[in-house]
Amino acid sequence: RRTFRELGATTELLAVEAAAKGAGAAPRRACGLTDREVEVLVLVAAGRSNRAIADELFISVKTVARHVSNIFTKLGVSSRAAATAKAFEHDLV
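Above: the chain's sequence. Below: its structure in token form.
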């Protein structure tokens, strides 16, 4: 974790922290997020744009936009910042 922080590797740090917390199915089911939506949410929380997320996950920008929209709906939020806050609040990232 320290190394990721020092390198500024936010996405990797979030993934390690999620794994360390045992971010298994229970918290995801609580919010109704799919595994892919959690992946997208981790990248949103890391400040990535839809284009950057699409490139990293090898999906289209339109698919990312749909995932982000679904995440907002399921979390009951209307912005990336609010989704990020909810994700941390519910130990999703």
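The mean pLDDT is 84.
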